[in-house]
Design a protein that fits this description.
Number of strands: 0
Helix content: over 70%
Distance between the termini: 82 Å
Shape: rod-shaped
Radius of gyration: 26 Å
Order of helices and strands: HH
Largest sheet: none
Number of helices: 2
Length: 54
Amino acid sequence: MAALAWLLIPLLAGIGAGLWGSWASRNRKAAGDGSELAGYARFREAMERSHSGG
């Protein structure tokens, strides 16, 4: 009976790893980069204004 328990431990660990792997690699809904790109464009324009004003 103890040997059966030692065989079930890796089996359950493998099943758990498979479930975690499938959950971790699922397709997530992409939020988009629009706001980040707009913020970067504003930052770049502000930096160009500060350097060209001198």
